[in-house]
Amino acid sequence: MMSMLTSVRVWLRDGERGDVPGWVLVTLMTAGLVVAIWAIAGDALITVFNTAIERVLSA
Fold first, then answer.
1. Which residues have a Cβ under 8 Å from the Cβ of 17 and sit 6 or more positions away?
2. Is 8 within the bounds of a domain?
3. Is 16 inside a domain boundary?
């Protein structure tokens, strides 16, 4: 039991556990960009998608 507690303490003190706030920020910014692009160019993106699907199905 003591060995497990020691391992947990060492793990918690380790500074190389990852940059969680950084990854959260990157994820939120990416989601924001997707929403912004979709709001600005949504109709054009739908047209491009539908045209591509029609070309694939008719080939």
1. 11
2. no
3. no
What type of residue sits at position 28?
Answer: L
Query: CA torsion, points 8, 9, 12, 16, in degrees to nearest 10?
Result: -90
Express each pLDDT in 20-32 by its tens digit: 788 899 999 999 9
Asked if 45 contacts 38 with a C-beta cutoff of 8 angstroms, the reply is: yes
- Overall number of domains in the chain: 1
Q: Strand, helix or coil at 57?
A: helix
* DSSP secondary structure string for all residues of 1-56: -HHHHHHHHHHHH-S-S--HHHHHHHHHHHHHHHHHHHHHHHHHHHHHHHHHHHHH
Look up tokens 């008719």; give the residue. 58
Q: What is this structure's pTM?
A: 0.52
